[in-house]
Amino acid sequence: MLALDPKTTALVLIDLQKGILAMNTAPHASADVLAKGHLLAETFRKANAPVVLVNVDFGADFGDAPRGLTDAAAGRNYPEDWTELAQGLRQPGDLTVTKHQWGAFHGTDLDVKLRRRGITTIVLGGIATNFGVESTARAGWEHGYNMVMVEDASTGVSAELHDMSFKFVFPRIARITTTADVTLG
């Protein structure tokens, strides 16, 4: 069990939104990650600890989307509601952050929202491990937060990329745990 202080710990869930949840993911199905996200959020809400829900969005022309390869055009044909958080995930009192990059710190007010609430530890999960989750974990660590990665509340675009993050990157910057082992109090 990993006992965390609810006064200094926040849950941050990355990209549990309609368009991302529709992707093929591994090693965990996106529906399973969403279910774990719901469980974690309830644990945090019961302890009066912050829940931060992050989604990604770009302008209609995708002019502000990350370009990827230097010579590659940005943009995809996403459904109109692709940025909406999963139904029932957001509850009164939850904080939201809309990002325009892989990581949730770049160009957002996430750091301000956490620091002004006295947060020093971030419990992190979401989709995709190898994009938004890892980028947010690295930036959180660089900002001085204690990072806790929830393996079964995260999934990647492939099992290999998910495993790479959890085997080689996260052990250097975070504690790794499972949903069942996260407790507050």
TrEMBL record:
Keywords, alphabetical: Hydrolase
UniProt domain Isochorismatase-like: residue ranges: 9-181
InterPro entries assigned to the protein according to its UniProt record, in alphabetical order: Isochorismatase-like_dom, Isochorismatase-like_hydrls, Isochorismatase-like_sf
UniProt-recorded Gene Ontology molecular function terms: hydrolase activity
The UniProt record lists the keyword Nucleotidyltransferase: no
UniProt xrefs under NCBIfam families: PRK11440.1
Protein name as it appears in the record: Hydrolase
Source species of the chain: Aliirhizobium smilacinae
